[in-house]
Amino acid sequence: MRDLLLTLIVFGSLPVIFVRPHYGVYMWAWLTYMTPHRLAWGFAYDFRFNYIVAIVTLIAAFRSKETKIRIPLTLPSVLWMLFISWTTLTAYNAFEPYSAWQEWDRFIKIQIMVIVTYVLIKEKEHLIILVGVITFSIGFFGVKGGIFTLLRGGHFRVMGPEYSFISDNNTFALALNMVLPLSLYFMHTTKHNLVRLALLGVNFLCIMAIFGSYSRGGLVGLTAMGVVFWITSRKKIASLAILVILIPSGIMMMPEKWVLRVTPMIESLNLPFLKETIKFYPASLFSYDLQTELSLNKNTVIPLTESDGLIRKDAEILQDLSVMGRFDAWAVAKAIAADRPFLGGGFGAFSQGVFNHYTPGVYRHDAHSIYFEVLGEQGYAGLVIWVLMHLTSLNYGRWIIMRCRKDTELYWASVMAKMIILGLLGYYGAGFSLGLAYYDLPYHYVTILVILRLHIQSVLDARKNMAQKIKRNSLLGRTDHIFPVPPKNP
């Protein structure tokens, strides 16, 4: 039934996309970020719906007389094109060409739809709908994961949709960090109190899903966003109240093994209200009984002190292994960049074969950092291009905020830019220990900031032209700009 329903929805949208190509961007975003076919159990599970939508969208864009096939030449978009070209060059010189070209093919397919976004998304309504589709697509799993965490007491790790960029618990937490601010955008712009209350509940469930992922990188990103959100908020008391209520209450709902896993990280952040929450921590308000969970059989239960010691010992061992794995991966990235500072190792440079070359006898398979991933695979030159692309995009967002925050007509753009920047900050924070440098969403965020800046600039230019026209007509003594003369009847 799910397979048939999904097929009807996708194929039913194709005629609409053919007439209105920008609808293809929405459909592609939904299929890419939510991967609804993974919620089916039959033929639709492995069907490439997004390819069909992408092809129809491209055909519709080329045949449309209203569509201008061109990419705006802005500093972020030029750097983005330069980075794509650079990845192609490094793929030619990769350590492992076969896997490099596979990863390059996946990366280029993502960038093709980013190009389509540049071409087709122009208006305010287009941007709001696209942001809404992204928020719903990933937020769906946040709500689902948050409910699961509450019902299971946080004893089981929450994962993302299968066979996607965010199938792993860490990458799933990173994606949730990126969409949390977008739900705040809709919460801020809506006038309906019930909708605001519902979105507040969505935010809480997404935070619980981040907790339930057991991802410390996700918590770092969440903390970074929370701090910046409070600093930049005009209602600091209300913002602080929300943060102090949501985050500590979420921590108190998690089981002891979760607290033992994240306590060293919380202590290193040196945030007093989080430290006090950990000290006050009573176990869990919704979790299963710890002694029952650790019982050897129905009649024998491990004493709490002994089980507590076992959990602490296991947690310390796992933390040491996790930290050492990241250090090993970062050391390999630096070693690759030292050997090949200009080109790096190309896509797929963090394979076991490369690890065996630089760190024999150590089993690793991931970069564990977006920064070291780009450094190891694209070299110092690629890292510089990638960083500049993001910095210039953030600067575009800052320009939008500063220009529109006191403009009643354009205030929505100021809020959207702020929330996208917060989402990117969550990506940068969580990405410090997570390898997801080629995920679709950051590139989409960069694109949205560029399109938003161009839209605001066009509105401001139109205002300026109108003001000049009014001034010119006033000097000539004309008043038709104030009281337009109706056309004469034939």
Quick structural overview:
This protein is mainly alpha-helical and 490 residues long. It has a domain at 121-288.
Give the topology.
Blueprint: H1 2-19, H2 22-34, H3 49-63, H4 75-92, H5 97-120, H6 124-151, H7 169-189, H8 193-212, H9 216-232, H10 236-252, H11 256-269, H12 272-280, H13 290-293, H14 304-339, H15 352-358, H16 370-404, H17 411-430, H18 440-476
Could you explain how this protein is built, in words?
With 490 residues, the protein is an all-alpha fold. It has a domain at 121-288. Helices cover 72% and strands 0% of the residues. It contains 18 helices and no strands. The longest helix has 37 residues, at 440-476.
Structural shape? globular
N-to-C SSE series?
HHHHHHHHHHHHHHHHHH
Relative helix content: over 70%
Strand content is under 5%
In terms of per-residue confidence, which ranges show pLDDT below 50 for 5 or more consecutive residues? Answer: 281-321
Name some characteristics of this structure.
490 residues, mainly alpha
